[in-house]
C-alpha cells in the first residue's frame, strides 16, 4: 500500500518586465508568485499541486504522513478543517490527486469519470486596452481558433472612467469580429484588492449595464454585484436574458450550496486551486448539473491550476468552454506557466489532455531553483 512519506512547500517569484496591469488591480504587478506543493510516497512517487499560499498548513503535516494518498475524501475533510481555522490549503488536494493518479497509473480526468480527454477554451483577457486595441486582440483570438473571449471591465481607479467606456470597447470588438466569437464580460464588482475602496455597482447600475450587454449579445456577465448580494444577483438574473456568472473567490462549498439552491446564478465558477480542491468541486459539478446551472471554473492561478481545472471539467463536467488566461504580451503562456518545463499550449482553441498518470505536470526544476524565495 502506498503511504505518504513527506510534504514539501516552496514559494517562487518571477519578475515581470514590463509589468502586468490587471483590470481588477489598480497597481501594476512587477512580479508573479507561485507556491508549489510536493507530496511524496514511500516509493518515491511525487504529486504536485499549486494555487494559494498554503498559509496555516505548517504544523499539520502529521495529519497526512503515513496515510494512503488515495484516501482523497479523508484528506478533503482534514483540509476543510484547516480551511476553517487557517488558510486555503487546497493545492494539497491537487497534489494528492496527482499522486493518486501516479499510484493507480491513470490520468485524473479518467479517475473523475472520463467524459472527455480535452476541453474547449475561451480566451480570458486581463488587461484594459483602448477599444481599437481590444478589437485587434479579439481578431487574433478568432485567428487562433478560440470560440469565445472574456472582456474585462474596470474595477478601480486607474482603469477606464465608467462602465460606459467599457461598453465602447465591447462595441469596437463586435464591429470588428461580428458574431465570430461568443463574448463574456467580467464586471469585476464581486470583490476588491485590499487597498481598493471603490464601491461596487448598485443593482440599478447592473440593470443598466445588462441592457447594454443584451444589445451586444453577451453570453454572460460575471460578478456584476458585490459577492454578498445573492438576492440582487437572483433579481438581476430574472431581469435580463444575459447569463449571470460568479463565485470565483467564494471561500466555502456551503456557500455554493446556497447559490445553487436559490438559483442565484446561471453559471458558477469555483477554482479547484482556491476552494474545495478537485475533491470538493466535483460535488459542485453534479449539484449544479442537477439544478440546471452551468459549471465552468475560474482558472487565473498558473499552469498547474489550469491543468487541475481542465481535468475536472473534462472528466466530470460538461462546460461549453473553460477559462484560458491568455493576453499577450502582458500575460503570455510563458509567464503564466513559468514553473512548468513547457508552457501549456492550446490547439485551435482546445486544451488536449493525455494518458500521463495524474495531472501530467512536468516542472522546470532549474527555473524553480532560480526563482525560489523564502
UniProtKB/TrEMBL annotation:
The keyword Metal-binding applies. Its cofactor is Mg(2+). Keywords: Magnesium, Metal-binding. The lineage of its organism: Bacteria, Pseudomonadati, Pseudomonadota, Alphaproteobacteria, Hyphomicrobiales. It holds the Pfam family MR_MLE_C. This is Mandelate racemase/muconate lactonizing enzyme family protein. The keyword Metal-binding applies. GO terms for molecular function: hydro-lyase activity; magnesium ion binding. InterPro entries: Enolase-like_C_sf, Enolase-like_N, Enolase_C-like, Mandelate_racemase_C, RHMD-like. Residues 131-243 form the Mandelate racemase/muconate lactonizing enzyme C-terminal domain. One of its GO terms (biological process) is carbohydrate catabolic process. It comes from the Bacteria.
Amino acid at each position: 500500500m502506498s503511504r505518504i512519506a513527506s510534504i514539501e512547500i516552496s514559494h517562487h517569484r518571477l519578475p515581470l518586465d514590463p509589468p502586468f496591469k490587471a483590470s481588477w488591480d489598480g497597481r501594476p504587478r512587477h512580479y508573479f508568485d507561485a507556491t508549489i506543493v510536493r507530496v511524496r510516497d514511500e516509493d518515491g512517487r511525487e504529486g504536485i499541486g499549486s494555487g494559494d499560499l498554503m498559509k496555516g498548513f505548517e504544523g499539520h503535516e502529521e495529519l497526512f504522513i503515513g496515510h494512503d494518498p488515495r484516501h482523497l475524501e479523508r484528506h478533503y475533510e482534514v483540509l476543510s478543517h484547516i480551511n476553517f481555522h487557517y488558510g486555503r490549503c487546497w493545492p494539497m488536494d491537487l497534489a494528492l490527486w496527482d499522486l493518486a493518479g501516479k499510484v493507480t497509473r491513470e490520468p485524473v480526468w479518467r479517475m473523475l469519470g472520463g467524459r472527455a480527454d480535452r476541453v474547449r477554451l475561451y480566451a480570458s483577457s486581463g488587461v484594459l486596452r483602448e477599444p481599437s486595441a481590444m478589437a485587434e486582440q479579439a481578431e487574433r483570438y478568432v485567428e487562433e481558433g478560440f470560440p469565445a473571449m472574456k472582456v474585462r471591465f474596470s474595477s478601480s481607479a486607474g482603469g477606464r472612467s465608467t462602465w460606459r467606456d467599457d461598453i465602447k470597447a465591447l462595441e469596437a470588438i463586435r464591429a470588428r469580429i461580428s458574431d465570430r466569437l461568443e463574448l463574456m464580460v467580467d464586471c469585476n464588482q464581486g470583490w476588491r484588492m485590499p487597498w481598493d475602496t471603490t464601491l461596487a455597482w448598485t443593482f440599478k447600475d447592473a440593470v443598466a449595464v445588462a441592457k447594454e450587454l443584451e444589445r451586444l449579445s453577451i453570453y454572460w456577465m460575471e460578478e456584476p454585484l458585490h459577492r454578498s448580494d445573492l438576492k440582487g444577483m437572483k433579481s438581476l438574473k430574472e431581469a435580463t436574458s444575459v447569463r449571470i456568472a460568479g463565485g470565483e473567490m467564494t471561500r466555502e462549498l456551503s456557500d455554493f450550496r446556497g447559490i445553487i439552491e436559490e438559483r442565484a446564478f446561471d453559471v458558477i465558477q469555483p477554482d479547484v486551486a482556491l476552494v474545495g480542491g478537485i475533491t470538493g468541486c466535483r460535488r459542485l459539478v453534479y449539484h449544479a448539473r442537477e439544478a440546471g446551472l452551468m459549471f465552468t471554473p475560474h482558472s487565473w492561478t498558473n499552469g498547474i491550476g489550469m491543468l487541475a481545472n481542465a481535468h475536472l471539467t473534462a472528466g466530470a463536467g460538461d462546460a461549453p468552454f473553460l477559462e484560458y488566461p491568455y493576453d499577450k504580451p502582458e500575460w503570455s503562456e510563458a509567464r503564466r506557466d513559468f514553473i512548468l518545463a513547457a508552457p501549456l499550449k492550446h490547439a485551435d482553441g482546445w486544451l488536449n489532455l493525455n494518458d500521463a498518470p495524474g495531472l501530467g505536470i512536468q516542472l522546470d526544476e532549474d527555473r524553480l531553483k532560480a526563482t525560489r524565495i523564502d
